[in-house]
Structures are given as C-alpha cells and as structure tokens.
Amino acid sequence: MSNTVGSLTLGETGTVDAIDAPKELKRRLMDMGFTRGVAVKMIKVAPLGDPIEVELRGYNLCLRKAEGEHISLQQEPMK
Q1: Cβ(17)–Cβ(36) below 8 Å
Q2: Contact, 13 vs 4, CB < 8 A?
Q3: For the segment 25-69, what is each residue's pLDDT rounded down to a tens digit?
Q4: Measured distance CA(42)–CA(51) in Å, rounded
Q5: Spatial separation of the C-alpha atoms in residues 24 and 42, rounded to whole Å
Q6: Selected residue with higher pLDDT from 77 and 25
Q7: For the sheet containing 52-56, what is the strand order?
Q8: Domain around 66
Q9: Is-contact 39 71, C-beta < 8 A?
Q10: pTM here?
Q11: What's the CATH code of the domain at 67?
C-alpha cells in the first residue's frame, strides 16, 4: 500500500519509496534525510493540521504537510 508522509496519522510509520517533487524541493528533502529505504514515523500534528513533525534517522523534523505529500511511502503493517 502506498501513502505519503503527509497522509500518515499519529504513530504510523512507513519507509520512503520515492520523492516526486520539483528538482529544488526534491534536493532539499533528500538533504533533510528523506532517501529511499529510510523509516519515517509521524510524531505530532499541529492543531490546525500543518505543520507536521516526523522522526527519521534518529531526529525529529517539522515540515509542511504539502511538502510531505511529495514523499511516497511503503506503509509498515500494523502490529
């Protein structure tokens, strides 16, 4: 099942599958650590839904939900 970082709910995790974004945004997201195979977990969502906070590579990162929509995930099965 394929999702995006922007569509995760609290506590959900997934693995980065691809980044479908304009060149500059793709480079920026990759520089922040979003590369294929990296695990991403939704930590917090702001009261109005934007921005979101995710955990990846051992650190927490806030980004706009619209930016997260460009990052495709393979969602982990619920345990």
Answers
A1: yes
A2: no
A3: 999 999 999 999 999 999 999 999 889 999 999 999 999 999 999
A4: 11
A5: 24
A6: 25
A7: 2-4, 71-75, 13-19, 39-45, 52-56, 59-63
A8: 2-75
A9: no
A10: 0.84
A11: 2.30.30.90
Other residues' Cβ atoms within 10 Å of the Cβ of residue 16? 21
Nearest CA to 28 out of 72, 74, 67, 73 is that of 67
pLDDT for the residue numbered 49: 85
Q: Specify the 3-state DSSP secondary structure of 20.
A: coil
pLDDT value at 75 more than 70: no
In total, how many domains does the chain have?
1
Residue 77 has pLDDT above 80, yes or no: no
- Spell out where the chain has E strands: 2-4, 13-19, 39-45, 52-56, 59-63, 71-75
